[in-house]
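We keep the chain:
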Amino acid sequence: MKAAASTITPEIDVEALRVGMFVHLDVGWMSHPFPLSSFRITTAAQVATIRSLGLGRVRWSPQDSDLSLLDGGHLRGSASPTQAAANDDVDGPQDAAAAVTEQAVPAAEFPTTEPGRLDAAALSPEEGSRIARQLRLEAQREALKICERQYGEASRACRQTLDLVAARPAEARAQAEGLTRALVDKMIDAREICIRVLTEGAADKTSMHAMNVAVISLLMGRCFGFSAEEIQDLGVGAMLHDIGKLELPQRLRHREDNFSPSELRVYQEHVEMGLVQAKRLGLSAGATAVIAQHHEHADGSGFPARLNSDRMTMAARIVSLVNRYDNLCNPRLPARALTPHESVSLLFAQGRSKFDTSVLSGFIKMMGVYPPGSTVQLTDDRYATVVAVNSSRPLKPSVLVHDPAVPREEALVLDLENAVGLGIRRSIKAQQLPPTALDYLAPSPRVAYFFEPAVALEAA
């Protein structure tokens, strides 16, 4: 059998870029407007955008490119189209399966007809199934790694923004606006979005809460068709909704049932303090309204102004709900956390009074009845963790299933929409899982969310 091809990815001058080339942009995820950092160029506008980034050369993958579009299959004045496997910088779950062809299994196990191409006819059905499964597994791992890396970059920028509020307010505002624009650009360009749960430890609690509220709120704004200005105000306000807490003692930043009346008053003052900071930062009226109203309720029972839904902005109604959801899932003490499913159920029970009906309905449709992070039992009695939800299929999330016959490191994520006869029977707390399932699924005590382009997953 032939050995696998070299994994070196050639570089090309940006002026030589053409439609059809598969490129890798080695800059931060927030430093370009594309939803992914690795993709096939499909329009001349994308070529122009890449050239405007100030990069002299970029890496490209000939084997993932449409060479028929490149001067009859050959790119003049560039490196020859050597076969190259994608490396650790591939950014996109839809490209990951192709990218890991030479990484998933030892090269000697791949029957090939030409460098880098599998000879499917030479494989037995068992070998083909095994290789296909391992490729899908590697693709899933790569997709999760990409999502976590992007979340890490965004959460660090969020943390830096919060750290700048006190000393450099103008810089904090500019950074919050820039991060929001970057997030919005990715969401707009990715036509279908999957909401993904991430592992704990991706950010500190303060920035994790800010990111969770900002990301989910922006996705809500996208669903409600917000204008560019409205969604920008929503994102900045959501990210900075708790900036008033930066001046509070640490022990009073999170409301507790045993607060004394004076402690409760101090806690509630974080909204007024947030408005002072918003003025210092020079935030827009829309973003400032979110900070002012994020603890108001539709029935007028909130604080500080006891506004009802009619007097709240739409952005504030969204952030009020999302803020409550994340605080239920991620309280100060993890032992008091509700599961994402329990949190949605509680919000629904309170929906007739505390939250705007249309916002609540939109939230449940987007996040699903079983949001990412929920532990569930399937209709075939197996246990699973919900890892992702596509807003167009809220009742059929993607799950990681406990299967004693499959090592955890080889477990595939299943898309319940494509799994015939398989669904969710009930939601359960992680503590109710049998020990073997608990160890296998390893649910995180805290829930962090991000987004990624939706892709088809294994069905069964």
Notes: The mean pLDDT is 84. The longest strand covers residues 383-390. The chain has 13 helices and 13 strands.
